[in-house]
Amino acid sequence: MAEQNPLKVHDLRPAPGAKTAKTRVGRGEASKGKTAGRGTKGTKARYQVPQRFEGGQMPLHMRLPKLKGFKNPAKVEFQVVNLDKLSALFPEGGEVTVEGLVAKGAVRKDRPVKVLGTGEITVALQVKVDAFSGSAKEKIAAAGGSVSER
Fold first, then answer.
1. DSSP letters of 91-144?
2. pTM of this prediction?
3. Are 98 and 109 in contact (CB under 8 A)?
4. Enclosing domain of residue 114
5. Pairwise CA distance, residues 90 & 115, whole Å
6. pLDDT value at position 5?
7. 98, 130 contact by CB (below 8 A)
8. If both were cysteines, with which of 111, 112, 115, 124 could 130 make a disulfide (CB 3.0 to 4.6 Å apart)?
9. Which domain CATH number covers 110?
10. Is 96 a member of any domain?
11. Cα 51 from Cα 41, distance rounded (Å)
12. Residue-wise over 95-130: b if at least 16 C-beta within 10 A, else e?
């Protein structure tokens, strides 16, 4: 059997017909000359009409409904922590701060924290975060804890 030489980069060639020259239109009477593939007379032969043009009909981008409203740049995006999560993270009670929640991996330190009232709490917590829901304040106070916004 004959020994095969390894393929080298300088042996690579484009496939036949893969590299064809761009057809230059409108250059004399030969192929694609004179009317340059546009046919004879009419709007399309004389100048370029935009592809999206619908002949004067109301264009599609104007017929479709638009997204209403705007994005409020002043909106505050809170990180939510519920009472059941607080009771799981601090089963012995004590002081709850944003730094403590960050240390336990419950929230990130770059956005404000809001405590919501989902779940029950049985231990007294002194919670100091950015915001509270009304039900969360009531439940924390009922369990013997206190709330304060930082």
1. TT-EEEEHHHHHHTTSS-TTS-EEEE--S---S-EEEEESEE-HHHHHHHHHTT
2. 0.57
3. yes
4. 79-149
5. 14
6. 82
7. yes
8. 112
9. 3.100.10.10
10. yes
11. 18
12. ebebebbeeeebbeeeeebbbbbeeebeeebebbbe
Q: Which residues of 26-61 are buried (b: 16+ CB within 10 A; e: fewer)?
A: eeeeeeeeeeeeeeeeeeeeeeeeeeeeeeeeeeee
- Domain count for the chain, please give it: 1
Q: Flag whether 38 is in a domain.
A: no
Segment (H or E) for 40:
none
Q: What integer pLDDT is reported at residue 42 of this predicted model?
A: 86
- The per-residue pLDDT for range 111-133, each reduced to its tens digit, is 999 999 999 999 999 999 999 99
pLDDT recorded at residue 51? 87
Sheet strand arrangement including 113-116? 79-82, 113-116, 131-132
Q: Long-range CB contacts (< 8 A, 24+ apart) of 71-76? A: 76/112
Q: What is the pLDDT of residues 40-80, one digit of tens each?
A: 998 888 888 888 899 999 999 999 999 999 999 999 999 99
**Mean per-residue pLDDT, 85-114:** 94
Token reading at 21: 């020259």
